[in-house]
Design goal:
By secondary structure, the chain is an alpha/beta fold. The chain contains eleven helices and twelve strands. It has three domains: 110 residues, Cobalt-precorrin-4 Transmethylase, domain 1, CATH 3.40.1010; 92 residues, Rossmann fold, CATH 3.40.50; 85 residues, Cobalt-precorrin-4 Transmethylase, domain 1 (3-Layer(aba) Sandwich), CATH 3.40.1010.20.
């Protein structure tokens, strides 16, 4: 067997917001019985969604697919204000599993709007978190930019009355470039005290940067629709790792592409469970004489409480 060193990034995998969202679905099923409806994938991971589906969760894209008499949970990515408003109108039981760090961005946006500022949001068009955040304010009050080039084409109502917010799962480095462009074009723009990119996204990207110089290839375990997972691939490539790939699980690894390597890095997006990481390590162990080295750049001990309506059930 060929010798291979696997550098395992830490932190990796589940963040506090994902952990909380999954618990909310499990506790809702325990409290109200199956089925419990979930608007949008609770987190972007097929393995997690399939596991919850087996327990009695029904995943839908819109509220009109849910019956009035069953509980509905809103995903960790957040929802536009119109969604809970409609659920209330229909007298539905609903639980909001929005990550508290996403809710913090919602509150920022509302505060700036109340002060008469128009918002610029840095994020990816169509992503559920972006739709949810933009949906906190009336139409036209949030302008979306995805790239530095977009900043040049912004046409705000009043260039002197602007604030910016960001999606929580962006590339730290890419976002810094867009923020710099915004500040250059709109010197008076108001920003958050600390960028909105969440601690988990920042920490996972820092860990990838730490292992990138040591490795021939990088595997990121995560879903194709997971923004933070896709950013990890990009960060790995930008840090000099020529081969960086996103895989959902071990069966997706392209072993032919890895022929001749002696070092590999493994990390996972914030919605990928540890069981999938172990599965990938076992797959390498069955093919190589494996040495696993942990590269830890931060410790995470953050925990978010579940909503009171579910805590009361315990």
């Amino acid at each position: 067997m060929t010798a291979l060193t696997l550098y395992l990034a830490a932190p990796r995998g589940f963040c506090a917001g994902v952990d909380r969202a999954i618990k909310i679905v499990e506790m809702a099923i325990e409290k109200w019985g199956a089925p419990v409806y979930v608007r949008h994938e609770i987190v972007h991971n097929k393995f997690v969604v399939d596991s919850l589906r087996e327990k009695g969760a029904v995943f839908v894209e819109e509220l009109d697919e849910c019956p009035d008499d069953r509980p509905v949970i809103f995903s960790a990515h957040g929802v536009p204000k119109s969604v809970p408003a409609e659920a209330s109108r229909r007298e539905m039981v609903f639980v909001d599993a929005t990550c508290p760090l996403v809710s913090k961005v919602h509150i920022e946006a509302e505060r700036h709007h109340a002060e008469g500022l128009q918002m610029v949001m840095i994020g990816h068009a169509g992503h559920p978190e972006v739709l949810g955040t933009m949906g906190q304010l009336p139409e036209g009050e949030v302008l979306l930019v995805e790239t530095v080039e977009d900043v040049a084409h912004l046409a705000p109502r009043d260039p002197a009355r602007l604030a910016f917010i960001t999606q929580t799962t962006l590339s730290v480095d890419d976002t810094a470039g867009i923020v710099a462009a915004l500040k250059a074009r709109f010197p008076g723009i108001v920003g958050p005290a600390k960028e909105d990119i969440c601690y988990a996204t920042t920490n996972r990207q820092a860990a990838v940067k730490a292992i990138a110089p040591k490795i021939d290839a990088l595997l990121v375990i995560g879903a194709p629709n997971s923004s933070n997972s896709r950013r990890l691939v990009e960060v790995g490539r930008a840090a000099g790792c020529a081969y960086a790939q996103l895989v959902q699980r071990a069966e997706d690894i392209d072993w032919r592409a890895l022929e001749g390597i002696t070092t590999v890095g493994v990390t996972a997006g914030a919605s990928a469970p540890e069981v999938l990481i172990e599965e990938v390590i076992d797959a390498f162990r069955s093919r190589f004489e494996l040495t696993v080295e942990l590269v830890e750049t931060a410790r995470e001990d953050i925990e978010f409480k579940v909503p009171r309506v579910l805590r009361a059930a315990q």
